[in-house]
Amino acid sequence: MSQPRDDRQDDLFRPPLKEIINLRHSLVRLAEEIDWDFLAGRFSSVCRVGPGQPPLPTRLVAGMLMLKHMHNLSDEALCERWVENPYFQYFCGEVVFRHELPFDRSSLTRWRQRLGEEQTAALLQESLSVAHRTGAIETKDLERVAIDTTVQEKETAPHARRMWMSSTAVVAPRVGLLPSQPIPPPQRRFRRPRTVCA
Q: What distance separates the 2 farthest-apart alpha carbons in the chain?
């Protein structure tokens, strides 16, 4: 299982994020509620330590994916906001404020490609669990769920929609949820070229 890179020596003279941020902020409270160890256990099959550069910490990747969907951001916008927002950094497990990303932006795309049904289910399961524990939703609210499968405008991976649709179709019944409507298969629409008569 991946551990955060140990670069605390470089951060010796930087103030910790806990001294800079408001500990009552919603992202800070949400980060305290999430069971990061549960997610790390589920993601362990995807992020194995092997030859090459050490893998990114599970909390960083899971946190980035959650922030992306919570704020409906593209990869580029997410990375820009992460660098300038200490609450995003704290949510993803950083201890001190970073002025640059600890990874290349293309790592997000590679992570999404490596995530399978089990990891996607774990993210959904933990999101619902936190919402239920904090009182944001009640058990009766889970009787019927509408799953939004709209695709962002700047979606870089066309397979992401198909992966999300197939995972929600598999995950929803497993956690006892029923989608409000059946999800139609993706359809390609072709435009017929216009013919101009002279």
A: 76
DSSP for the chain, please give it. Answer: -------TTTTTTSPBHHHHS-TTSHHHHHHHHS-HHHHHHHHTTTS---SSSPPPPHHHHHHHHHHHHHTT--HHHHHHHHHH-HHHHHHTT-SB--SS-SS-THHHHHHHHH--HHHHHHHHHHHHHHHHHHTSS-GGGGSSBPPP-PPPTT-S-THHHHHHHHHHHHHHHHTT--BSSPPPPP----PPPP----
Mean pLDDT score of the chain = 75
Do residues 147 and 168 touch, judged by C-beta distance below 8 A?
A: yes
Q: Note every long-range contact of 3-12, with CB atoms under 8 Å and residues 24 or more positions apart, other chains counting.
A: 3/54, 3/57, 4/57, 4/59, 4/60, 4/93, 5/54, 5/57, 5/102, 8/95, 11/95, 11/96
| Residue with tokens 């993210």, as numbered in its chain | 123
**Within a 13 Å sphere around the CA of 60, how many CA atoms are in the beta-carbon half?**
22
The pLDDT tens digits of the residues spanning 145-186 come to 677 666 655 554 555 666 666 666 665 665 555 555 454 555
Give this prediction's pTM: 0.64
pLDDT tens for 56-85 read 788 898 899 889 888 889 999 999 999 999
